[in-house]
Amino acid sequence: MPPPKDVVKIAIQMVGAIPQLIELQQTKPLASVLKDVCDAWSLPNAERYALQYADGRQTYITELNRGEIKNGSILRLTTSPDQEAERLYSGIQSNNSDVKTDSLKKLASLSQDVTFAQEFINRNGLKQIFRIVEEGNDTGEMLAYTLKAFMELMEHDFVSWETLSAAFIKKIVSYVNMNAVDASVQQLSLSILENMVPTSRHLFELVKKEVTLDRLLTHLQVTNAQLQLKAMALLIALLLAATDAERRDMMDYLWEKNIRQFIHKNIIHSSEPLGDEMAHYLYVLQSVSLNLCERRMRTSMDPYSQEQRDLLQSLRQTAFESESEAPASNFSTERRRSLCAKEFRKLGFMNNSNPAEDLRRAPPGLLALDNMVYFSRHTPNAYSRFVLENSSREDKHECPFARSSIQLTLILCEILHVGEPCSETAQAFYPMFFGQDHFFEELFCICIQLVNKTWKEMRATQEDFDKVLQVVREQITRTLSLKPTSLELFKTRVNTLNYSEILKLRQTERLHQEETLAVPVLELRERLKPELLELIRQQRLLHLCEGTLFRKISSRRRQDKLWYCRLSPNHKVLHYGDVEEGVCSPPIESLPEKIPVADMKMLLVGKECPHTKEKSSGKQNKDVLELAFSIVYDVEEYCLNFVAPTRYEFCLWMDGLNVLLGKEMTSERTQTDLDILLSMELKLRLLDLENISIPDTPPPVPKPPSNLNFCYDFSHAEQ
């Protein structure tokens, strides 16, 4: 008979004593449980003791978290959090260097526990940490433990970052700005400043003033990968907290200092593999840079702005200045207006008498005008060739430069997500972005010439405009999916992917779809499905057995803390626990926490998850919602919360957990994988029927013969 839900069987250890095996009554007060345990070992003053997990983070057991204790858990009897906090509070004030160092080391470890942190902070422990840092007498290892303890204590949000003293902040800044400082101290100092920046405008301005961009660039150029990562994290935090004007100035300065080239050469193409955290920061840097185009993208053209009208006129003059034999100033006003309208029509404006009207639509707004002007000024020969070549064609066959540019700018904004907020977890950046100044404009220059090339290949007319731009969008997206490392490589590949290649790809995809729609093939698909679905189930469970590294995401910032979760080989227990950066696949024995699969009740997704409801921010980050899921186990109030690193991992975990719960796999990845496997299996089965058309209905079965006398009797032949 299974034990009651409110009873768990556990082991309790104590140094120098034989462990106790007890049945913990969850309804019994914790103070009574501790008294019983102490009495068994003849220990007085039970109130001075507490229980904590023996493995993993060694969290203290309280009335609030005791429900998380599982059957088979190993606990340890130790000094109570208030006693330990008092001891360490005294220890960090000791004049003995060894005692002080050991106390700070223990403090850095225990501060991860919320119960201990509360007790230590209640004793004004942070004030002592401030004093140690402000006095500046301690360096090296002792200072690193102090800063680590401070970081862990602040992580619990008991104290506001705005309460930090000016002297403390000045000291942290000095560790970042000094050269002869231990690398671990500089890493922790950069992390502290990174946490300070988003909390208030005052702290942002203070850090921005004291830690210059030049200093951050110096840290970015070191060989220490962790120091480089922390410097990038602070730089990103400053960029995200800045106003639009400040962000633009900061980005301009960074580009002047060739940070783009440095990142492309020394980080992206480094001999060391790019970590997830750095990939995320590069994605954010790319996103922030591209979003500088948003203001122009959302601004309509003002027909009364002389500056904007001059830009428009420069397009016309660059293309047609050598065409006119006499200068336009010699013509009458009416003649000059007529000539301008004719030239704007040749440029491809829909409203040639007032071309500003074409640019009133936002997006793409003035960004389209900026792109056209950039193209005309930086590649004047290609610009003139585009315009004049189309001017000489029949009206219905000419490719309208202006109209194409406006639509292409909009397409590029959509593909590159200009104007969209940065994701908290995304890591998808384009390596070629960091290899090219004026990336957006240069990409436009390549793609507008691609429009003209594709227009000619399609022998398009004005009625085909949308079809041409649809093909161009496909050419761009297919090429970008290959992640070219430079714009030159992008240009080569996108031009190779001409209209005939696009048609071949479409035809291949269409034929594949058609051949799989024949009735006999559909019947064969249905017969193959169960076997292939079982194969997918096995793959999902195998992936869960290999495990995945998850990040802890808070409402304040993207956490550095990692945890790992994996399924046991017998598919009966989920093991999980915190891990350090750089650990790829920890052994299952090193993961202290566990959830029996039999205790799993249900799966929650997106907005239903407790950790997405807990966020105080009113606007939920869309990508976190799309990647969040929770396992409800035992009784419904206990959940293990996840935020998957990618959509792919999300789908695999959702499928694997549904298999464990005995439910259908419902992710989009299941259908994709099933389609791929069915396609491969069908092609193998139908290999002998190549070039033979499969009828929709089977051929009729012939009528039986009138007699069966045609059967040969072998018995007579043997005689």
Automatic annotation (TrEMBL):
<keyword id="KW-0581">Phagocytosis</keyword>
<dbReference type="GO" id="GO:0017124">
    <property type="term" value="F:SH3 domain binding"/>
</dbReference>
<comment type="function">
    <text>Involved in cytoskeletal rearrangements required for phagocytosis of apoptotic cells and cell motility. Acts in association with DOCK1 and CRK. Was initially proposed to be required in complex with DOCK1 to activate Rac Rho small GTPases. May enhance the guanine nucleotide exchange factor (GEF) activity of DOCK1.</text>
</comment>
<dbReference type="InterPro" id="IPR011993">
    <property type="entry name" value="PH-like_dom_sf"/>
</dbReference>
<feature type="domain" description="ELMO">
    <location>
        <begin position="307"/>
        <end position="480"/>
    </location>
</feature>
<dbReference type="InterPro" id="IPR006816">
    <property type="entry name" value="ELMO_dom"/>
</dbReference>
<dbReference type="InterPro" id="IPR016024">
    <property type="entry name" value="ARM-type_fold"/>
</dbReference>
<dbReference type="InterPro" id="IPR011989">
    <property type="entry name" value="ARM-like"/>
</dbReference>
<keyword id="KW-0729">SH3-binding</keyword>
<dbReference type="GO" id="GO:0006915">
    <property type="term" value="P:apoptotic process"/>
</dbReference>
<dbReference type="GO" id="GO:0048870">
    <property type="term" value="P:cell motility"/>
</dbReference>
<dbReference type="GO" id="GO:0006909">
    <property type="term" value="P:phagocytosis"/>
</dbReference>
<dbReference type="Pfam" id="PF04727">
    <property type="entry name" value="ELMO_CED12"/>
</dbReference>
<dbReference type="InterPro" id="IPR001849">
    <property type="entry name" value="PH_domain"/>
</dbReference>
<dbReference type="InterPro" id="IPR024574">
    <property type="entry name" value="ELMO_ARM"/>
</dbReference>
<protein>
    <submittedName>
        <fullName>ELMO3 protein</fullName>
    </submittedName>
</protein>
<dbReference type="InterPro" id="IPR050868">
    <property type="entry name" value="ELMO_domain-containing"/>
</dbReference>
<dbReference type="GO" id="GO:0007015">
    <property type="term" value="P:actin filament organization"/>
</dbReference>
<dbReference type="Pfam" id="PF16457">
    <property type="entry name" value="PH_12"/>
</dbReference>
<dbReference type="Pfam" id="PF11841">
    <property type="entry name" value="ELMO_ARM"/>
</dbReference>
<keyword id="KW-0053">Apoptosis</keyword>
